[in-house]
Amino acid sequence: MTLENNTHGLKVVGTRPIRPDGVEKVTGRANFGADRALPGMLYAKIKRSPYAHARIIGINVEKALALPGVRAVATSADFPEIRPEEAFVGEGPMNFRDLSRNIMARGKVLYEGHAVAAVAAVSPGIATEALNLIEVEYEVLPYVIDVEEAMAPDAPLLHDDLFTAGVDPKPEKPSNIAKQVTFSKGDPAAGFGEADVIIERRYTTKPVHQAYIEPHACVVSTMPDGQVQIWASSQGQFMIRAYCAKLLDIDMANIRVMPAEIGGGFGGKTLIYLEPVALVLSRKTGRPVKIVMTREEVFRATGPTSGGVIEVKLGARRDGTIVAAELVLKYQAGAFPGSPVQPGCMCAFAMYDLPNVHITGYTSCRTGRKWQPTARRARRSRHSGSRAAWTNSPARSEWTRWRCARKMRRRKAPRRFMGRPGRTLATSTHWRRERRIRTT
Fold it and tell me: Rounded distance, CA 147 to CA 203, Å?
């Protein structure tokens, strides 16, 4: 039955409705985050750290303030000190102390590109010139960017007060491992004992930025009565309002956020980077403030999807029944705790009814930008769970190919396949990599 013959009584299905935003976009009249302009508006720029890990000894802004055209300078001293706490706001549980320190470094910089100060001036050129006049004294510290190196006992610590959650008893020493999760079912050791074939593989993935076309941008205007108006490119205006209210101790009722047209986000605009900074500068000057990231700043200062290491072990009988599985997930969280390792553990083998399973997941801090989801609509499935599921696909496919080859060749099955560590690539060739197979 064709669609035309099955649309009786339907008003929309089978038609070609005009998109409500189509005309404005194709004619160029749609306003994106950087298009907003207000009378008396100032332009702000952010000074960023050149070091991956360093202690901030001092910041001198006097020369920048003395430059003609500069109206205000903001540092972490202009942000309230927030105690660590979590609340379900926006895309998920959020530690507001970490969020505040990601927006403006306090005490230490934790990645190259970490914001340390901001300047508001009458033109973008003057603001950029003023950034060069801000003097920041650093004590450079050792850094680590690999997830397994960050998990090592002797790795440079990013946070002296971070103790691994999910471990009983609580560790006595701080660590870069923010969280450990474990899921078990049955007896994996017995299951592997029953297996005719055991396949073990190790895969690595790297952080990948969402690479949306439109950089982050916002305009913030603060009125004398404390009312705040924000225009921003974002995937959630209510999230912006809630975060700004919490970070700057403002009544949420006094903040109004107007979402601009968005030039791509893919999960990368479910967090805030600029809005609180622009709000602080607007309060200090009494004038609207605009901040627009450059493409370089987007890659240096906003969150990519987390990279990681995935180790999988599958045991199966000759008839194709998988009898045991083990999985270890090591996810990078970036400079602050929080990665999708728990959903990854939950989704990895969710499509199989396996009798014996053991899964361990680690989320580890390392010098780098804070993790961000890769896709808003399917962030849990695509980014977290399916990353582990995709990773298992090569091992499962290899087992299937072995079964087919065995039926054709009628040869004795090898007991174990051992693959050397490989790097996985999600391309059209789907997990192409070199590997060596050794039969024992």
Answer: 13
Nearest to 309 by CA among 114, 193, 146, 156: 146
Are 24 and 34 in contact by the 8 Å Cβ rule? The answer is: no
Residue 168 DSSP SS3: coil
Residue 440: is it exposed, middle or buried by C-beta count within 10 angstroms (0-12/13-18/19+)? exposed
DSSP states along 387-432? HHHHHHHHHHHHHHHHHHHHHHHT-PPPSEEE---EE---STT-S-
pLDDT over 70 percentage in the chain: 81
Q: What domains can be seen in the chain, in order of their start residue?
A: 150-209+304-423 (3.30.365.10)
Give the CA count within 13 Å in the CB-facing half-sphere of 271: 26
Strands 217-222 and 228-232: antiparallel
Question: Helix, strand or coil for residue 164?
Answer: coil
The pTM of the full predicted model, rounded to 2 decimals, is: 0.84
Report residue 113 CA to chain centroid gap.
15
422/399 Cα distance (integer angstroms): 17
Structure tokens at 293: 């990231």
Which tens digits make up the pLDDT trace of 243-296?
A: 999 999 999 999 999 999 999 999 889 999 999 999 999 999 999 999 999 999
Q: How far is CA 194 from CA 190, 201, 326, 402, in A?
A: 7, 19, 15, 18
Q: What is the four-CA torsion angle of 243, 249, 251, 256, rounded to 10 degrees?
A: -40
Report whether 136 contacts 56 (CB < 8 A).
Answer: yes
* The total number of residues written for the chain in this structure: 440
**Does residue 233 contact residue 263 with C-beta atoms inside 8 Å?**
yes
